[in-house]
Amino acid sequence: NRDCEQQRMRRAAMTPGMPVSIETVTFFLTSARLFDDKHRGRARVFVDGSEPIDIAHDNIFVPYGNLQDVAILRAVSTAARWVTMPLVFDRVNTGSVFVIAGYHPDGTRALVTQHVRFVATRTVLGDRSVASVAGCRGAPAIVERGVFGVISECEPDRVPVVTPLSAARGCIIRTVPGLTATPSGGPQFTLGEREIAGPLLAVPYGE
C-alpha cells in the first residue's frame, strides 16, 4: 500500500529555539470497493509501529464510476517516514510469479505466493486461495520490481482478483505529486529454484 511522498516544514513562529514540526504527506493505494456510498466519509490507516492515521473525506480519491478499482488515500502525519515500495505500471505475463502481502488473523505478517493465471486490461487472476490473509481486499500485489496492483476480490474458496495499477495509471499520476509513470527500483524479492531428489507424491488437483 503506498506511493509517492513529499515533506513540508511548518514553524509555529520565527523565534529562535522554537521547535520545528515536520509533516509527511504519504499516498496509500487500496481497493475502491472498500469505499461504497456508506463508507466514504473517512478512513483509518494502520502502519506498523505508528499510531493510526485518520483520513478525511476530501483526502480519499476514487476514480469516477469505480471503473478502475483503485482508491488513493492522502495521509498527513508527523510520524517518521515509512519505507515505501515503487509502483510498477507494466503489464504482467501469464505464468509469472507475484506475492500478496497482508496479515494473518493473529496479526502476524502473511505472504502468499501466486502465479498469474489470466491477464486482461483491468483484471489479473491468481491461481490459489488467499484465505490465510485476513481482510485481503485492498492488499498489495507485488512483483520483483514493486507493487503492480491491489486485490479487488479474495473470496475464501476462489482465486484472488487483482486490479493492475496500469488500469488507473492516469488517475494515480494526476493525484500523486512528483510520481512518474515508470518509477525505478531494484527487486523487492528474489526467486530461487530448488531441485527435489527422490519419489514425489501425486496429489489429485481440482477435485
Rg over CA atoms: 19 Å
Number of helices: 1
Distance between the termini: 35 Å
Approximately what portion of the residues adopt beta-strand conformation?
25-35%
H/E topology pattern: EEEEEEEEEEEEEH
Structural commentary:
The chain has 207 residues and is mainly β. The chain is 3% helix and 33% strand. The chain contains one helix and 13 strands; from the N terminus they run E-E-E-E-E-E-E-E-E-E-E-E-E-H. The chain has one helix at residues 169-175; strands at 5-11, 20-30, 42-45, 53-56, 60-61, 71-77, 97-103, 109-115, 118-119, 124-125, 140-143, 146-153, 161-164. The strands form three sheets. Strands 8-7-11-12-13-10-9 form a seven-stranded antiparallel β-sheet, with no helix packed on it. It has a four-stranded antiparallel β-sheet with strand order 1-2-6-5, with no helix packed on it. The chain has a two-stranded antiparallel ribbon with strand order 3-4. The longest helix has 7 residues, at 169-175. The two termini are 35 Å apart.
Question: How do the helices and strands line up, and which of them pair or pack?
Answer:
Layout: E1 5-11, E2 20-30, E3 42-45, E4 53-56, E5 60-61, E6 71-77, E7 97-103, E8 109-115, E9 118-119, E10 124-125, E11 140-143, E12 146-153, E13 161-164, H1 169-175
Antiparallel strand pairs: 1-2, 2-6, 3-4, 5-6, 7-8, 7-11, 9-10, 10-13, 11-12, 12-13
Compact overview of the structure:
This protein has 207 residues and is mainly beta.
